Amino acid sequence: MSQSSSMTLPSGAIYDYDIIKMFTIASMLWAIAGMAAGIYIASELAWPVMNLDIPEITFGRLRPVHTNLVIWGFGGNALIATSFYIVQRTCQTRLWGGKVLSNTVFWAWQAVVLIGAWAVMAGHSQSREYAEFPLADNILMMIGLVMYALIFFMTLRKRTQPHIYVANWFFSAFILATAILHFFNNIQVPYSFWQSYSIFSGVQDAMTQWWYGHNLVGFVLTVGFLGMMYYFVPKQAGRPIYSYRLSIVHFWALSFLYMWVGGHHLEWTALPDWVNSLSVTFSILLLLPSWGGMINGIMTLSGAWDKLRTDPVILFLITALAFYGMATFEGPMLALESVNALSHYTDWTIGHVHSGALGWVAMVTFGSFYHMVPRLWGTKLYSTKLVFVHFWLATIGIVLYIVAMWVSGIGQGLMLRAFDQYGNLAYTFVETVAFLHIPYIVRLLGGIFFFSGTVLMVYNLYRTITAEKQEEVTRELLIPNRAIA
């Protein structure tokens, strides 16, 4: 079978597409594994007997496996793949460092995810949100991040274009912030190979952890994937970004504001009021650049709205932006103390997280893969109809999921705050748990819809990858960088 693994540059050199292919395939495989784990733990919440009395597959162990596989396995590999693709094409230069270094990053990253998942299932956990992997594994991740950063920034340094396209600014912020967050959240004192203690304690430890936890959402699951959006939306639409000036304002505002908002996860705790007030204030301000970026992406389609009817890839990308806008409106709202008093410790928060994770992160990644994979392998997309089917499976799944979580979360909050005429709690905790059963079944159904769409995408892209290369593949023109290259 003949396949294309590179594209010739004007200078006669070629882009390195092989490493991008490896990260892309790994991302899709981890997506299947991570989402399958999510389906299983959702069934465990609806029917606890699904634990089967096996410690390794109980909800408490599988849940961090699910979150870390989709964040670092699916999301991490997707970010590295797309950033390597975009930085080469917008800088019109080959990846720095050669195959040995890039392959080392690839295998190190897969080892981090695999070892971490095994360790958590075996009971070795830091018990820190989105950072459950043991210290030894996180040290390996830090080494991988440094090597990844070296390749990316040295490629930027040797670019042949004077202009740094805005997508690369977002990827740069994602890489730097992730390394900083990862370092400080893992300042630990080890007492065995798999176990360690944080040097912080009490409220300081909680604040450090949520400084990390929320900024991981901010700089990995938001800023990193905005790098995808700023390249693939204009490319797929065949139009320049709506406002380059707005994209720069979007970048700097997000980079400054996000670092301050982690404290809103600790409202109604021992967190000092001044830290809480600071976090809430910056959470509200964060709405402005977030919606500015959403509008910038959606308005890129101005004059080409008909593509929403005919191009399912555009449909994925624009719908992702819509969910990005919704999630970034809901986040600041949940940070308000009066709303947080109802939502805190309820499934409303879970619904909010998944409206961003499924609606924004996954959908923009799916759209990016549908655009990128045929170009990497020099083939045509196997089936556009299957892309439409995937879109509707994913959209229905997201709606079922988040509506179920809104119902269960708001219901939980109201029941836990309800009092009878004597001033006693109107409901016991067990009654609130019983109330959750039906919403949890609906949430599981939504997850199955979404997972089915992902499996369909993997099949579609597998057939795309394995298709015979066409005799004549139309090569994309290298459009000048400051437009939509």
Walkthrough of the structure:
The chain has one domain (18-465): Cytochrome C Oxidase, Chain A (Up-down Bundle). The protein is mostly helical and 485 residues long. The chain contains 16 helices and 2 strands. Helix 1 runs parallel beside helix 3, helix 3 runs antiparallel to helix 4 (135-157) and helix 13 runs antiparallel to helix 14. The protein has a two-stranded antiparallel sheet. The radius of gyration is 22 Å and the shape is globular. Belongs to the heme-copper respiratory oxidase family. Cu cation binds at residues 214, 264-265. One of its GO terms (cellular component) is plasma membrane. It holds the Pfam family COX1.
Structural class: mainly alpha
Number of helices: 16
Helical content stands at over 70%
- Total number of domains: 1
Mean pLDDT: 92
| Order of the strands making up the biggest sheet | 1-2
Kindly provide the radius of gyration, computed on alpha-carbon positions and rounded to a whole number of angstroms.
22 Å
Based on CA inertia axes, which overall geometry fits? globular
Question: What name does the CATH topology carry?
Answer: Cytochrome C Oxidase, Chain A
Number of β-strand runs: 2
CATH homologous superfamily label: Cytochrome c oxidase-like, subunit I domain
CATH architecture call: Up-down Bundle
Largest sheet: 2 strands, antiparallel
C-alpha termini separation: 30 Å
Tell me the name of the CATH class.
Answer: Mainly Alpha
